[in-house]
Amino acid sequence: MPYVEDFKQIIEEQLARVQRIKEGGDATDFSAKDKIVIGIVGGDGIGPVIMQSVREILQKLLAEEIASGKIQLRRIEGLTLENRIAKMETVPQDVLEAIKECDLLLKGPTTTPGKGDNLPNIESANVKLRRELDLFANVRPVAIPEKNIDWIFYRENTEGEYALGSRGVNIGDEISVDFKVTTDVGTIRLARAAYEYAKNNGNKNVSIVTKANIMKKTDGKFLKLCYDVAKDYPQINTDDWYVDIMAANLINDQINSRFNVFILPNLYGDIITDEAAQMQGGVGTAGSANIGNKYAMFEAIHGSAPRMVEEGIKDYANPASINRASVMMLRHMGLASKAEKLERALDVAASELDMPGDGTGNTAEEFTQFVLERI
Ligand code: IPM
Ligand code: MG
User: Fold this and answer.
1) Do 33-135+292-375 and 136-287 agree at the fold level?
2) Considering only Cβ atoms within 10 Å of each terminal Cβ, which end of the chain, N or C, has fewer?
């Protein structure tokens, strides 16, 4: 039975990963670093357009730090679909090495070929980078002030359905099996990050989202371990919900403002955060932080929008999401006042500019100029 061998190898790899997590170092203290290198990775589709915006804005915002050599913005080339296909690597080795020489990354969206695209089947670059850099927490804030909604999602980012997403097996033509992996160390470090955030930001409620009634082993473990971590935070209310009813709760205006911090396994986090971002004004409006102990990567929550490129309207791409991600990066580096300055300018841009994404309204360049004038 060849499948038994495959399965054995998968289990051994996962056990080795658990070991690596256990041996991993503590979180980087950016205030103690003499020099911080921020890699700017263009990506596909509208990626170069929105990355140009965030780069210009950071150049102005961090002018002093850049001049003194404390911060370096470094362009990382080659994470494009063409180059990845040419080399037949999810993230080409030289690109990965260049990325690992940075401390932080701002990354444009990368295209993943899907079935029917007539392209080689290469894995998502995003998923590979999250795994390679061990970026275990995907943090996504969503705020809708007029509804009193202030949410932050802590999505597990390296495990669940994504740990072995491209490693499922076909048993002949008749059966297909994919894997979902949940580990103790992987869950506890995510839950701890979410509760620490809740504690440090005065949030009273943490909601755990699973489907533990069906996914009994993986989600069952996730739920139990989150409640174990909750015991260290008695001042915070913890509740738990199944993901289906949580999808409904988010759009239930009777109760949605009661939620604060969410903890979710990977795939549910993927789905629920798109729903939440859409409520805030579209997936183009939310930023996303992928946090690990050594590295952190900040990106737009949306994809590369190949449709906008095909229709010749990529210059109308909205750089709001990647700039929101940049705000999160500034906070992660301890530059809170710069983060606030940028955030305020983005709020004004959101209310005064019109960027529906259909080739009408304001361009990315106009957005950038608008923000540059306000920081
Ligand atoms: C996200 C995206 C990614 C994901 C894709 C691009 C692989 O949807 O960041 O939410 O599924 O995690
Ligand atoms: Mg998603």
Assistant:
1) yes
2) N
What's the CA-to-centroid distance between 33 and ligand 1, angstroms?
Answer: 31
Tokens encoding 139: 């943090």
Q: In this predicted model, what pLDDT tens digit does every residue of 73-91 receive, in sequence order? A: 999 999 999 999 999 999 9
| pLDDT above 70 for 254 | yes
| 1 has a pLDDT exceeding 70 | no
Atom of ligand 1 nearest to the CA of 269: 10
Burial class (CB in 10 A: 0-12, 13-18, 19+), 160: buried
Residues 6+ apart with CB under 8 A from 15: none
Q: Mean pLDDT, to the nearest integer, of 100-124?
A: 88
Q: Where are the domains positioned within the chain?
A: 33-135+292-375, 136-287
* Rounded Cα distance, 134 and 146, in Å: 36
CATH of 136-287, one of 3.40.50.1100, 1.20.58.100, 3.40.718.10, 3.30.160.270: 3.40.718.10
**Closest Cα to atom 11, ligand 1: which residue?**
270
Q: Which CATH superfamily is domain 33-135+292-375 in?
A: Isopropylmalate Dehydrogenase (3.40.718.10)
Of ligand 1's atoms, which has the minimum distance to the CA of residue 274? Answer: 10
Closest ligand 1 atom to 109 CA = 6
Asked whether residue 115 carries a pLDDT value surpassing 80, the answer given is: no
Distances in whole angstroms, Cα of residue 247 to Cα of each of 91, 161, 195, 242, 286: 33, 19, 22, 9, 18
- Residue whose Cα lies nearest atom 10 of ligand 1: it is 270
Which positions ≥6 away from 38 have C-beta within 8 Å? 58, 71, 72, 73, 74, 102, 103, 104, 105, 106, 329
**Which protein residues are within 6 Å of ligand 1, measured from CB?**
112, 124, 126-127, 270, 303
CA 104 to CA 281: how far, in whole Å? 27
Centre of ligand 2 from the C-alpha of residue 274, in Å: 6
- Report which DSSP code applies to 165: T
Q: What are phi and psi of 99, to 5 degrees?
A: -65, -40
Q: Compute the average pLDDT of residues 97-108.
A: 97
Rg of the chain on CA atoms, in Å: 21
